[in-house]
């Protein structure tokens, strides 16, 4: 589904379907990942149908030789990510078929599987993600750790836990990754952190002096964000501050953050917004003060729901929060929230309070995915300040009433991923 974002007219939704027939993606392939290459081509990765490319002239997702269908290099595996390592050279991470490389000029591809007889084997055939850093190094997240790949070399550098290597990762299950310049920071399912330097050296982050064993990171690290060149924040069971120069960490000692499961982070200047299952916390990393925003019965300006799904800072610097019980906008003047919720007798209100992904288009409009009522956009405002939402559901031609992800493309258009296709 392509959502054109013009200014004057309502959104013009155009169905994007695949082609049927042998070796094609099918009419409504389950799309797992979207990638735009350097030439502006939009690639889609699916579950069990392989990879395809959007034909912008026909608005159909079409097959790619060697990459589409059950007999392709990808086969019935799920495409988890796509990267363009050089012009027309693509690397595709799959869950089940290892790493697939493809040359769009020659039409030739190759599949790399786990092979213990190789000097530099792929550590696992089940890849969960792919990322290319500024130096051109490709990083693969797998079920058995992290692999570092130099596209211009012949082979892979696997990075995984080993009691025989003091410079190895402390865990195989990488749960979160963030980039800070040319350095890659990782957090583990078993707790703890490490940094991978541009030359491939692995350096584990140790607890700072004075940190008690009970305060150390021992649970899954669900989020990491770089604040600046010297500090990275990580969220797991509590918030941790990593000193990127000394390679040490210590917990942020605050009762509002200690022992809280943190699932998302957002950096806004000196403020770190922390999403937990028990509310939203604003932590100031200079004053070290924290403030909890939680739902309070009888207080209409409090957070709609304590489980924060997604956060967005719009182009005007306003903080928006999606929850299971509606859309909230933070009012810094009163430290309260404006609420935008579904009104049963108002078709221009939010169609469903159970919302998750949120994105902003080039004109400042908010596109929000719902669980059960399709895609909605905060289109404009009435003179008296009332928001006007426009909604597209399955009965209107949208592929599904459940929206998994929403993103803005380089051309300004909004792209939506649903269980029934793009």
Structural description of this entry:
This protein is an all-beta fold and 422 residues long. The protein is 0% helix and 47% strand. It has no helices and 37 strands. It has strands spanning 2-4, 12-14, 17-18, 31-36, 42-46, 50-55, 60-68, 78-86, 89-95, 99-103, 109-112, 127-132, 138-142, 145-149, 156-159, 174-180, 183-188, 193-196, 202-207, 223-226, 231-236, 238-243, 248-251, 262-268, 271-276, 279-284, 290-293, 308-313, 319-323, 326-331, 336-340, 355-360, 366-370, 375-381, 387-392, 405-408, 414-417. The strands form eight sheets. Strands 16-17-18-19-23-22-21-20 form an eight-stranded mixed β-sheet, with no helix packed on it. The protein is flat, with a radius of gyration of 23 Å. The model has no long low-confidence stretch (mean pLDDT 85).
Q: What's the arrangement of secondary structure elements?
A:
Elements: E1 2-4, E2 12-14, E3 17-18, E4 31-36, E5 42-46, E6 50-55, E7 60-68, E8 78-86, E9 89-95, E10 99-103, E11 109-112, E12 127-132, E13 138-142, E14 145-149, E15 156-159, E16 174-180, E17 183-188, E18 193-196, E19 202-207, E20 223-226, E21 231-236, E22 238-243, E23 248-251, E24 262-268, E25 271-276, E26 279-284, E27 290-293, E28 308-313, E29 319-323, E30 326-331, E31 336-340, E32 355-360, E33 366-370, E34 375-381, E35 387-392, E36 405-408, E37 414-417
Parallel strand pairs: 3-7, 19-23
Antiparallel strand pairs: 1-2, 1-37, 4-5, 5-6, 6-7, 8-9, 9-10, 10-11, 12-13, 13-14, 14-15, 16-17, 17-18, 18-19, 20-21, 21-22, 22-23, 24-25, 25-26, 26-27, 28-29, 29-30, 30-31, 32-33, 33-34, 34-35, 36-37
């Amino acid at each position: 589904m392509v959502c054109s974002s013009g200014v004057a007219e309502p959104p013009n939704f155009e169905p994007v379907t695949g082609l049927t027939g042998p070796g094609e993606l099918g009419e409504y392939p389950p799309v797992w990942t979207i990638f735009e290459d350097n030439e502006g081509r939009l690639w889609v990765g699916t579950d069990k149908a392989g990879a395809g490319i959007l034909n912008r002239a026909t608005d159909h997702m079409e097959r790619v030789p060697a990459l589409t269908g059950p007999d392709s290099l990808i086969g019935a595996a799920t495409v988890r990510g796509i990267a363009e390592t050089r012009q027309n050279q693509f690397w595709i991470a799959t869950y089940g078929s290892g790493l697939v490389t493809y040359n769009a000029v020659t039409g030739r591809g190759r599949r790399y599987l786990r092979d213990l007889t190789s000097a530099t084997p792929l550590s696992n055939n089940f890849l969960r993600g792919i990322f290319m850093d500024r130096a051109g190094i490709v990083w693969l997240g797998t079920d058995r750790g992290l692999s570092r790949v130099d596209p211009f070399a012949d082979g892979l550098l696997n990075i995984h836990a080993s009691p025989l290597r003091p410079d190895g990762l402390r865990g195989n299950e990488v749960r979160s990754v963030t980039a800070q310049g040319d350095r890659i920071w990782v957090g583990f399912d078993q707790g703890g952190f490490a940094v991978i330097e541009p030359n491939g050296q692995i350096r584990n982050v140790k607890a700072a002096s004075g940190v008690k064993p009970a305060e150390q990171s021992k649970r899954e690290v669900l989020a990491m964000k770089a604040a600046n060149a010297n500090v990275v924040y990580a969220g797991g069971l509590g918030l941790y501050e990593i000193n990127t120069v000394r390679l040490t960490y210590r917990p942020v000692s605050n009762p509002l953050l200690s022992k809280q499961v943190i699932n998302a982070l957002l950096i806004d200047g000196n403020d770190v917004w922390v999403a937990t299952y028990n509310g939203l916390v604003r932590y100031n990393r200079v004053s070290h003060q924290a403030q909890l925003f939680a739902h309070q019965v009888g207080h209409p300006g409090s957070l709609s729901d304590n489980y924060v799904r997604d956060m967005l800072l719009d182009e005007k610097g306003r903080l928006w929060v999606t929850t299971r019980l509606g859309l909230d906008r933070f009012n810094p003047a009163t430290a309260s929230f404006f609420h935008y919720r579904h009104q049963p007798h108002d078709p221009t209100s939010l169609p469903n309070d159970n919302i998750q992904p949120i994105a902003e288009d080039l004109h400042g409009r908010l596109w929000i995915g719902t669980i059960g009522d399709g895609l909605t956009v905060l289109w404009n405002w009435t003179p008296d300040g009332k928001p006007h939402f426009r909604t597209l559901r399955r009965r209107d031609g949208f592929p599904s009433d459940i929206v998994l992800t929403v993103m803005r493309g380089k051309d300004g258009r909004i792209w939506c991923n649903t269980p029934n296709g793009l």
